[in-house]
């Protein structure tokens, strides 16, 4: 029997579905885009129409303005686009993030976007979606990447605060997803004190709170009523770019921390001047990536934006069909 035709093709704009006439996370403006989540390397402004979860559409409006696309449609159950059935399923990456299931040409494809399998109280948990073809990221697609328990990393931060009560602790965290996850980890670890946030995080944190994510007492880090010494022993969350600005100098002898899966690479921490690396990632590590492929057991695995070669080699050793997509334009755990 001839192999069924794949419903997705790679084009310069990104993954394209001819039978539904849409792109998934396109890197250039297109007529119709299906978007997995609101990080800027997946969600771009300027499309004719965008189909995504309600939370992703809301976050895109916060980041790009209400006119970020010509039209918006909320993903709701299984939908038909042309001759194609599509549905959205939680990805466990950030608030509103989804895997997109595409069924056409006799095959079902799951495009995972960015996904994580570790419990994340700031978003819905990853959901397994049966498929013939699984499209997986490989951001941390090397055996060396095995992320520690994020609760332990939060405890590491609190231990440093206790050890250096005269210093402020500035935690670099991307404004969508990572910042809110770090806050939630600190709350779960028992930190009930105010957490101070950079202004770039305010609207996105407010939206999480409106969506029922209990971030607790958040206060602006630029509170003019507070003196420099008042921030001793306090935790401040800010975009990593704030490390390089005079903004950080308003705090007493700050301990610079950075929450990222890349902090397991000590050279990266040193390059950024990070004193306290926190290995907290919103992507699957090697163990969870390979476990996911095993559990889904797809007939074929497509690997994109990351360490494709290692994942494909692992699939070959397991007797699994796999190929790289070589999609350009995606960043590693960045905005």
From TrEMBL:
Taxonomy, superkingdom: Bacteria
GO molecular function: exonuclease activity; ligase activity; RNA endonuclease activity
Keywords associated with the record: Exonuclease, Hydrolase, Ligase, Nuclease
EC number per UniProt: 3.1.-.-
Alphabetized PANTHER family for the sequence: BLL1145 PROTEIN, CLEAVAGE AND POLYADENYLATION SPECIFICITY FACTOR FAMILY MEMBER
Full protein name: Ligase-associated DNA damage response exonuclease
Species annotation: Paracoccus aurantiacus
């Amino acid at each position: 029997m001839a192999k069924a035709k794949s419903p997705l093709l790679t084009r310069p704009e990104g993954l394209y579905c001819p039978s539904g006439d849409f792109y998934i996370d396109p890197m250039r403006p297109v007529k119709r885009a299906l978007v997995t989540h609101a990080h800027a390397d997946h969600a771009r402004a300027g499309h004719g129409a965008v189909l995504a979860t309600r939370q992703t559409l809301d976050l895109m409006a916060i980041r790009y303005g209400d006119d970020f696309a010509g039209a918006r449609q909320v993903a709701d159950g299984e939908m038909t686009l042309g001759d194609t059935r599509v549905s959205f399923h939680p990805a466990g990456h950030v608030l509103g993030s989804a895997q997109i299931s595409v069924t056409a040409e006799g095959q079902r494809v799951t495009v995972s976007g960015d996904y994580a399998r570790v419990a994340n109280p700031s978003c819905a948990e990853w959901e397994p979606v049966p498929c013939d073809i699984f499209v997986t990221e490989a951001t941390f697609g090397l055996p060396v990447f095995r992320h520690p328990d994020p609760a332990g990393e939060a405890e590491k931060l609190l231990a440093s605060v206790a050890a250096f009560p005269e210093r402020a602790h500035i935690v670099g965290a991307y404004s969508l997803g990572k910042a809110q996850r770090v806050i939630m980890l600190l709350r779960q670890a028992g930190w009930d004190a105010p957490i101070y946030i950079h202004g770039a995080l305010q609207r996105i944190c407010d939206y999480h709170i409106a969506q029922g994510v209990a971030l607790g007492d958040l206060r602006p880090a630029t509170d003019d009523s507070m003196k420099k010494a008042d921030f001793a022993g306090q935790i401040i969350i800010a975009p990593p770019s704030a490390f390089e600005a005079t903004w950080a100098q308003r705090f007493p002898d700050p301990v610079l921390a950075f929450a990222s899966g890349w902090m397991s690479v000590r050279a990266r921490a040193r390059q950024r001047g990070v004193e306290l690396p926190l290995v907290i990632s919103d992507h699957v590590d090697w163990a969870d990536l390979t476990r996911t492929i095993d559990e889904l057991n797809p007939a074929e695995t497509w690997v994109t934006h990351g360490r494709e070669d290692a994942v494909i080699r692992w699939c070959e050793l397991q007797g699994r069909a796999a190929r790289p997509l070589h999609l350009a334009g995606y960043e590693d755990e960045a905005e």
